[in-house]
UniProtKB/TrEMBL annotation:
Name of protein: Aromatic hydrocarbon degradation protein
Chief place where the protein resides: membrane
Molecular functions (GO terms): long-chain fatty acid transporting porin activity
Organism in which the protein naturally occurs: Tritonibacter mobilis F1926
Subcellular localization: Cell outer membrane
Keyword Magnesium in record: no
A matching Pfam family: Toluene_X
Family designation: Belongs to the OmpP1/FadL family.
SUPFAM superfamilies: Porins (SSF56935)
Assigned GO CC terms: cell outer membrane
Signal peptide: 1-20
Gene3D superfamilies reported for this sequence: Outer membrane protein transport protein (OMPP1/FadL/TodX)
Amino acid sequence: MKHYIAASVATTLLASSAMASGLDRTGQPIGLIFEEGTYAEFSFATTDVELSGNDRTSLNPFGSPTGDVGKRFNMLSGGFKTDITEQLSLAVIFDQPWGVDVDYPTTGGSALLGGTMAQADSNALTALLRYKFNDRFSVHGGLRYQETDGEITLAGAAYNATVPLSGYNVKVGRDGAFGWVAGVAYEIPDIALRFALTYQSEIEHNFDLVETTPAGVPFIGGTTLNTNTTTKTPQSVNLDFQSGIAKDTILFGNVRWAEHSATDLVVLGALGGRDLIDIDDSFTYTIGVGRRFNQNWSASLAYIYEDADGDNLVSPLAPTHGMEAIRLGVQYQTEKMKVAAGVRYTKLGDAVAAPGGTPVANFNDNDALSLAVKVGFYF
């Protein structure tokens, strides 16, 4: 079966290398647990984001361009899987599930948002056990430890509408917390069929904050405040499926739901309880086909569509709404190792940046290009 489904392996390569809704970067895959025998893998991905817009002329008659606010980001992932008994398997997976890199230029950029920036990074380690009742039914589950931190600056005329907040900065200290994973799978090995349903819990972080307030803020202007807040990263559900449809040909897909609306960053100091993150829940759909050409070479092609809830008014810190993507992967495999590479083109959904719900800038016709490579070893 290992060689039969080789065409599908490259399909997972770029799940973790492109921009999706809100902070979601990896889709939190757990496919490693289904590898045969003892196996280890390492992957690297890079994404170049082209993300620009224009100030709305109702607020800025010049309609100033924002400049490119999207920043290139890189990601590492890896994992190890082994069989403890004929029925029980263990996997440890490292990924970087959540992140954002947005920076509005101040020179020649938006008068309404110039200087605004957001940066967040995360690292997660998941330990999974899988128990096979027989060749067809299995359950999997385990614990997930996650660390994350970040920084946000609010700048530009859009943040001076009521209270002069332009220049506000908050540094979010690194925090680690635990969540859990649980799922079930059904397989028919003879035709490479597998359905796997996986739930990943939300993870609650208690962040220490350092807020720097602009001079014009009443009573506390020009001061530095040490505060804290509680934030959750989203719970999610993944449904992964694959099935052989012809000799050396496989159909595969994924449906992912993520509750991004649960992720709030409510700052109680200078902003008096204002939420800096406003992201809609989303469904992401993937459908594709993989083909094995011979014992060593295989390739896959997939289409991805993301449907984000709500209207297209979004936070300036994540100025996209939904997306479409095409993903191509190729793989070379032997008995002891495999090397996969892939490319993904993502058309980012149009959106309107609206701090506090007030539309200030239109973001249209943006995209991202991702490249990734993975190396895996069988022992």
